Amino acid sequence: MDNSFDVIIIGAGVTGCAVARELSRFDCSVLVIEKDEDVCCGTSKANSGIVHAGYDAKPGTLKAKMNIRGNELMPGLCQELDIPFKQIGSLVVCTDEANREGIDDLYARGITNEVPGMKILSAGEVKAIEPNISDDVVCALFAPTAGVICPFRLNIALAECAAQNGVEFKFDTKVTGIRSSGGVWEVDTGDAVYIARAVINAAGCHADDIHNLVSDKKLHITPRRGDYMLLDRSLDGFVKHVIFPQPTKMGKGILVTPTVHGNTIVGPTAVDIESKDEAPVTAEGLVKVQEGAVKNVKGLQLKQVITGFSGLRAHEDGGEFILEEADGCPGFFDCVGIESPGLTACPAIGEYMASLVSEKLALKQKDTWNGICKDVVKPVELPSEEREKLIKEYPEYGRIICRCETITEGEIIDAIRRPLGAKSLDGVKRRTRAGMGRCQGGFCSPRVMDILSRELGVALDSITKSGGNSKIVTGRTKDEG
After folding, report:
1. Those residues with Cβ within 8 angstroms of residue 259's Cβ, 6 or more apart along the chain or in another chain
2. Which residues share a beta bridge with 266?
3. Strand-pair partners of 229
4. How far, in Å, CA of 206 to CA of 280, rounded?
5. 437 close to 396: Cβ distance less than 8 angstroms
6. Domains in the chain, ordered, with CATH?
7. Which of 195, 315, 327, 414 is a plausible cystine mate for 4, CB 3.0–4.6 Å?
8. CA–CA gap between residue 156 and residue 154 (Å, rounded)
9. How far apart are CA 20 and CA 32, in angstroms?
10. What is the dihedral of CA 405, 292, 92, 269, to 10 degrees?
């Protein structure tokens, strides 16, 4: 790999990969540097998977502008990248007559932000479309352009599309220093120094650390932990829309929503913590999730939980997206404070940042560019005739590895072999859903490990859950003989 590039992007989360895909439209060399072993390993890996309508953000802010534009772009982007997306609409539920005015305020804000199709529904209208809504419902704000998406697939597909258009990725590589020298930027990773005409800082919770390496105007990010519960697919259809409580200054509150895969997700909490890398699920957090969920949805079978998880949001002190060339640092661009609605906004952020950088570097668009990507082939979703033909040609698509999600060996092989392929159990899980079902990998994990070992040509005891030191086995219980 040549160490000189036109642009270096720090961070392979959904923001960094969205920017990378947009820059791949231009005739330039781009490198994405990621400290973890795969894309989607930081703030992007654990969120609600909600595409927000855009009524919540303060009018005139970048959050509002990027939310609205991202929502507009999302359906077409998902079609191009073969990403599951359901535009099911959202409800912000008021359960106290004294708070009705807050719903009116949200509606007015949404109108200012030009959110299409919003309505304030009466209690009867809400119950008609959501029979399991709380009996205390007074009214609700309905926004039809909200939806649900697979956040893993979005991040991975953006990265794969960028890679197929020439963007290079460097994983397990942590930036330790950045300096400006002779009109270019030198990015030090300890093992090597990479040179670029421009640097884009999309480092999630660490974006302030990266920014503060180069700028006298310091930024500060507070990691905000959110706990979630994922419920079994047996509850599919219990709620049909994204159900929000009225928001607070800490966030949008405990939501209840279906996922694109038929589960129900409940959460998140909002707890400011110190660690930017670790967000352990807490019993206290899960209790708050349960308490918040039942305020808006009655009869929710929380005993059907199949896993709890947590994620981090990168809350910058100003509470706003920072999308700009840093003061006094020509060629250094920040994507800082990308918390909710960051997932929704990522296509717009990619578009916006690519325009800033392309103008700065006087980049020209390529004559040819391929924005189409296809997901891993899923035999269970094919018509029977096509499935039989596929299995006849490739028998591995007829061998079920993950029973809960009906994932085949062929899908796992594809996930490993495709561009930026999986190297760990979590990498396979995010690309195929193997291990995401009711048993949470209890049955399929050893078999997935065998396939990873075989396909990557490495020893079984070197396979990890999520890179680094997260090894699953340490050796054999008895020697082969």
Report:
1. 49, 148, 150, 265
2. 229, 256
3. 266, 308
4. 18
5. no
6. 4-44+152-221+318-361 (3.50.50.60), 85-147+222-314 (3.30.9.10), 379-462 (1.10.10.1100)
7. 195
8. 6
9. 8
10. -70
Contact 302, 229 (CB under 8 A): yes
DSSP 8-state symbol, 125: H
Copy the structure tokens of residue 428: 């396979």
Q: Show the DSSP H helices in 174-220 as ranges.
A: 207-212
Ordered per-residue pLDDT tens for the chain, 481 residues: 589 999 999 999 999 999 999 999 999 999 999 999 999 999 999 889 999 999 999 999 999 999 999 999 999 999 999 999 999 999 999 999 999 999 999 999 999 999 999 999 999 999 999 999 999 999 999 999 999 999 999 999 999 999 999 999 999 999 999 999 999 999 999 999 999 999 999 999 999 999 999 999 999 999 999 999 999 999 999 999 999 998 866 567 899 999 999 999 999 999 999 999 988 899 999 999 999 999 999 999 999 999 999 999 999 999 999 999 999 999 999 999 999 999 999 999 999 999 999 999 999 999 999 999 999 999 999 999 999 999 999 999 999 999 999 999 999 999 999 999 999 999 999 999 999 999 999 999 999 999 999 999 999 999 999 999 999 998 777 765 5
Residue type, 112: T
Question: Residue 114 corresponds to which amino acid?
Answer: E
Report the b/e string of 419-433 with b at 16+ CB within 10 A.
ebbbbbbbbbbbbbb
Tell me the C-alpha distance between 156 and 81, whole Å: 10
Question: Tokens for 461?
Answer: 């005891």
Q: How far is CA 226 from CA 247, 268, 320, 420, in A?
A: 15, 5, 19, 28
Q: Strand (E) positions, 12-102?
A: 30-33, 50-51, 85-86, 90-94
Those residues whose C-beta lies under 8 Å from the C-beta of residue 469, and which sit 6 or more positions away, are none
Residue type, 355: S
Active-site positions read: 52
DSSP state of 140: E
Residue 93: what are its φ and ψ, rounded to 5°?
Answer: -95, 130
